[in-house]
Amino acid sequence: MGGVTINTAQLNDDLSAEQRALDEILAPLDADRWSRPTPSARWTVADQVAHLTFFDQAATVAIERPDDFDALVEELLRAALGGDEAMDDHTLGRYRKMAPGDLLEAWRAGREALRRAAGSLDDDDRVTWFGPSMSARSFLTARLMEVWAHGQDVCDAVGASRVPTARLAHIARLGFLTRGWTYVNRGAVAPTTEVRVDLTGPDGQVWSFGPDDADERVAGSAEEFCLVVTQRRHVDDTSLEVTGDDALTWMTQAQAFAGPPTDPPVPST
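Above: the chain's sequence. Below: its structure in token form.
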């Protein structure tokens, strides 16, 4: 799995499929459940959808109008200087005024625009984003990871569940590749120790990353690994087998997404 290359067209299709899977959970919810708090501090179910809507629309601008995207970056940075509430007001404010049905339609429209825009990307294209530019494949993988991770917050809030799919392979690979980022983002030096990761996918397939002869290892469920690297579960609340101090340190602070360093949930929460 580690050496398999997925093209942008496949990633775009998988991103759309992941969005539809979350839509199927959101569509039947009544207004009460849209307003329920989620594991993300300060955010309701509606806020999770608003977050996805804002950044799907930003992603479309980044692809289609990269010169205009610079202004979006500057606006976001100014909002960030004001703290969490100012950031929420900037990214979520307009959507918090919408009824759930209108917000759902806004997300649908935004993700369809992103699907069309992403269809123009070639495998060797790069996309400007909030931070360093990203390859087209990494960009779409990150969007898929975001949908899945924030979708987990929604599921946790409303008591829903999703059937794991082979799309987890994209998130697992991203989680492995961002091991170094986890340390750099915290102002630390990434260890040179190699880690082998062997994960079992939903259909029993094994996805492996890293050298086979590495002493430090992570093994187990691909879904649980994805929950850990997206900080939706603490590694202690999974059945993952972690061997080695460096592997354990990574798993207790893994962060496969951009932004300032954050910590996973405390165990048993």
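The chain has a mean pLDDT of 95.
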